[in-house]
Each structure stands twice: as structure tokens, then as C-alpha cells.
């Protein structure tokens, strides 16, 4: 068994997100294409004394480091209700309340890291079941790359990975409450256009064609001032802005790295607190 391990945990965007219904338990059904991108948190795991309670630390004081954190829940799922023998350090780079799955990605990395660090006899199938029970997006991050998602996001079909396409991702200072976003979407009287079929049909098209058909139902009900500012800047470069998840991060992709660089520079000059020029990735 190892005593120390470090894992990078990628963010994701939703190339499409169509909300297709609502279940009696309040969860919503969906069709989506998930895609990992080159923005990472970092998790460091260190074995401690067998009877030493779990310690979780984070560089972001806004992140809870107790049983509310999905990393803690992952440890409890594998090591028992009161996990011991482990210290975990979390360095956040993925913005919170962005719809980019940072917490879910950290959870999946914790499941993989703890299994390896402790040499646990937990199959991949069991790990996926645990991940899905902890959060709808968690199981996706055990795959990474490009996946078609159905159900509440737990029914996953891995797809051929995309090439490394240029991306610009930006977020304002305000976040979006996922429950509030779904409440607003439920109250929307209009039938919203769906993008998943078009995205699936164009995964092997060129980048400009693919990103031009991306879409997200939450775009229709998200009107934060900074979100509108991001959309305006991206459109000025001929890009197609799309919300990720329930927001509030907005992404746009293209085939031209120089255009992506220029758009990212313009967003930084506009004073947005989070701007990243990155790429799609297969991990």
C-alpha cells in the first residue's frame, strides 16, 4: 500500500443539457453530453495512524471540510461512518457554483484514491454504484472524456473522445443555486429547444460546427448581469456562448486558438473574476 498520493481532478462542461421530465422524488431527468476540460482541482492523500480521525483541508475557506463535503462522504462510503487513517488536502481551482462539477470530480477522485491507497477490494462496478449514490455527476468523473448521459445523469455511455479543441470559460462573481435554477426552469412556460441530438450527430464534425449546435435549457432562465456580459463578449468574437450545468459558468469553443486567446483576453479586460483559456480533454 502507498502512504502518499496526489490526483488531479478535471472540471466538465455540458455540450448539451436537455431537461426531459421530473420524477416523483423531485429529481429531474435529462439528456446531456458531458465533456471534461483542462481545469483541475488537486487532491493529496496521506495515510495516518489507523485510529486517527479523517482530516480534510482546503485552500478555499468557503468549502466545508466536514461531513457535508462529497470527499468526506466518499471516505465514509469506503472506510465506514467514522473514517480514520487518512488526511486529504484539497486545492481548489475549479470555481464553485459554476455548473462544472468540481465537487463531483473531487468525490470521484477521492473514491479512486482511497481505494488504491488502502488497497481495498472494491470493483470498478461497485465504485460506480457508490459514486452514483453520492451525486448524479460523480459517476461521470470515473470515466472522464466524452459521455452521453441519461436518467438523472447516472446512466452513462462513453463516447469517442473529442480532440483537444480550444475553449474559453468564464464566470462572474455570483453563483447559481441549483434548486433555484430548477425551480425557475419548472416555472418556464415555453417549450425549450433541445440540443443533445444535434451534438451527438456532430461529435465528429469540425469544432466550429460542433460548438455552434451546443445548447442548455438553463440558458433560458439565467440572466445574471455578468452572465449576460460574458455572452456579449463571446458573441463579439463570433462564438456561441453556452451555460454549463445549471450555471453560472459560460463556455464557448472554436477551431481557432488565436480567436479563443483573444476572447479570453477581452473577458479578463472586462474584469470577470474567473476566465480560463483551456481545451477539451480525454481524461
What does this structure look like?
There is one protein chain. This protein is α+β, with helices and mostly antiparallel strands. It is 31% helix and 28% strand. It contains nine helices and eleven strands. The model has no long low-confidence stretch (mean pLDDT 95).
Main features:
7-stranded mixed β-sheet, globular, 2 domains, Ribosomal Protein S5, domain 2, 31% helix, 283 residues, Alpha-Beta Plaits, alpha+beta
Task: Set out the fold topology.
Layout: E1 4-22, E2 28-47, E3 55-58, H1 70-79, E4 86-91, H2 102-118, H3 124-134, H4 140-143, E5 146-150, E6 155-158, E7 166-171, H5 178-186, H6 196-201, H7 207-212, E8 215-216, H8 225-236, E9 242-243, E10 250-253, H9 257-269, E11 274-279
Parallel strand pairs: 1-8, 3-4
Antiparallel strand pairs: 1-2, 2-4, 2-5, 5-6, 7-10, 7-11, 9-10
Helix pairs in contact: 1-2
Number of strands: 11
The structural domain count equals 2
H/E element order: EEEHEHHHEEEHHHEHEEHE
Largest sheet: 7 strands, mixed
Could you name the ranges where pLDDT drops below 50 across 5 or more consecutive residues?
none
CATH level 1 class label of the largest domain: Alpha Beta
Our measurement of the CA-to-CA distance between the termini, rounded to an integer number of angstroms, reads 24 Å
The radius of gyration over CA amounts to 19 Å
Q: What sort of overall outline do the alpha carbons produce when their principal axes are compared?
A: globular
Query: What is the overall pLDDT average?
Result: 95
* Percent range for β-strand residues: 25-35%
Q: Tell me the structural class.
A: alpha+beta
CATH architecture of the largest domain: 2-Layer Sandwich
Oligomer: single chain
Percent helix range: 25-40%
The count of helical stretches stands at 9
The third-level CATH topology of the largest domain is: Ribosomal Protein S5, domain 2
